[in-house]
Amino acid sequence: SSGRIRSAAYASKVMSAADAVKFIQSNDTVAISGFASAGTPKVIIPALADRIRQVRGTGANFTINLLTGASVSPDTERALAEIDGIGLRMPYQSEATARKKINEGRMDYVDIHLSHVAQQVWTGYYGTVDVAVVEVSGVTEMGELVPSASIGNNKTWLDVAKKVILEVNSWVPEGVEGMHDVYYGTALPPNRKPIPLTRVQDRIGQPTFRVDPDKVVAVVETNHRDQASALTPPDEVSEAIAGHVLDFFDYEVRNGRLPADTLLPLQAGIGNVANAVLGGLDRGSYKGLTCYSEVIQDSMLRLIKDGTVAHASSTALALSEAGIEELNANIDFYRNHITLRPQEISNHPEVVRRLGVIAMNGMLEADIYGNVNSTHVMGTKIMNGIGGSGDFARNGYVSMFLSPSTAKGGAISSIVPMTPHVDHTEHDSQVLVTEHGLADLRGLSPRRRARLIIDKCAHPEYRPMLHDYFTRAESLPGAGHTPHILGEAFSFHQRFRETGSMRL
Ligand code: 0RQ
């Protein structure tokens, strides 16, 4: 035994993964840990996939409904998706096999704001949670659970599930204990109280999860690495986008809207562009920045190490292999600069609004008025999901959306006449950025926004087509406040469908 289970009551429940999954029945709603790859259970899901195959071999059906924090490790998502093991999936995925099943209509997918998941489950929108499968890094003498590399919805899963299966993973460094802040003060209305978090580094909860020991039906010991997040080095396009964002920060400081050294808490989505923006921060004169986000990427570790970032709050780590090594080797240092929280708090509208978060998220496309599509390719096929982008964009102090100006080698323009799906409305997006420039939409009417977005953000090749559309829309009799030619508004998308390119 690894010595991580310090409570005898739990030690007596240790069993194999194959035995543990016998507690999961067909049609169960199963809520698992994991946010990005971090903290995904390592052995129970593969064992469950085996059990599903076995049961199917007898002629019976076996599917589960799967609830998570956000995406889980790709291997885990795939293991269940490729055998059609999931009836309903909620709230976020980013894995090719699952995406395909969803778009073929073979897996139900409910795509909701990550801050809403906990309360929607408490209120019973998803029925009963039959089993929670949660990875932890240890069990204390008192039977409390030390979280691992993510928190996500684990507090809620442990609270609401009828049965709990724990994976105690001794690969997670013991020094992680104390990095987490699990807040137990949330409630449903009319009993809600203000969340007493006024600074990024505030600790308002406790370092461990509580669970009713009678519900814990199985404990499985593991020693398995988290799957690393892919990290591609910034390219020219993402460096250019980052450059515009950093210039914008300077502009805001000069205008007295952001504090000079520390700015306001930063939130950045996952991926190339976010990494490039964060990576560029240590070139400025910033000291003691803070981040209030949902994940921590590699660039953040470097910024913490050199003092550019004083404290980062999130619900999960999303590190590459090298980042995981760096964190684990220096866990006692990073524990004082990183706080992991339940996602209902890391993404909470009240807290995001109070702190004045600078929200920077990726998008698929925006229209000439600033409506943003983050989730649906050509308006119909799900990409990943809204994730936390709405939580931050709607409530941020400044809400920015960042994207290359084209996709698929230029065949797709990220600026279109009208987005065929809207995740973030024109009322929520304030600044759009591509490699060509930054459109500051604050204080502008729709017609002024349109000209600015086309001139600053669209790829030069698409600018004439967009101007042509807008000019003709504006000259229609009764063009209105937000001019459109309704029969033509999706012509770029239609052309892509028919010819494989939005180009004329
Ligand atoms: O696909 O790799 O197959 O070519 O979409 O595009 O440019 O690499 O951008 O990785 O930042 O993803 C919106 C999906 C952008 C992401 C989205 C294709 C493009 C490529 C990826 P290929 P890029 P990113 C914070 C909040 C919602 C969740 C969120 C996302 C692939 O940012 O999922 O924000 N956001 N969470 O070719 C068709 C278009 C396209 C397009 C790009 N207009 N039409 N395909 N692509 N634009 C999260 C955290 O804090 C963790």
Describe the structure.
It is a single chain. Strands 1, 2, 3, 4, 5, 6, 7 and 8 form an eight-stranded mixed sheet that branches. A five-stranded mixed sheet has the order 9-15-20-24-25, with helices on both faces. Strands 10-12-14 form a three-stranded parallel sheet. The protein is α/β, with parallel strands linked by helices and 504 residues long. α14 packs across α15 (389-395). The model has no long low-confidence stretch (mean pLDDT 97). Helices cover 30% and strands 19% of the residues. The longest helix is centred in the middle third of the chain and has 19 residues, at 236-254. The site of ligand 0RQ has 26 residues, from α9 and β15.
Number of helices: 18
Major sheet: size, sense and barrel closure?
Answer: 8 strands, mixed
* Attached small molecules: ligand 0RQ
**Strand coverage percent:** 15-25%
Bulk shape: globular
Q: What's the average pLDDT?
A: 97
Please give the number of β-strands.
Answer: 25
Low-confidence stretches: none
The SS-based structural class is: alpha/beta
Residue share in helix:
25-40%
- Termini separation comes to 66 Å
Compute the gyration radius: what is it?
A: 23 Å
Family: Belongs to the acetyl-CoA hydrolase/transferase family.
Organism: Gordonia paraffinivorans NBRC 108238
Protein name: Succinyl-CoA--acetate CoA-transferase
Domain Acetyl-CoA hydrolase/transferase N-terminal: 7-221
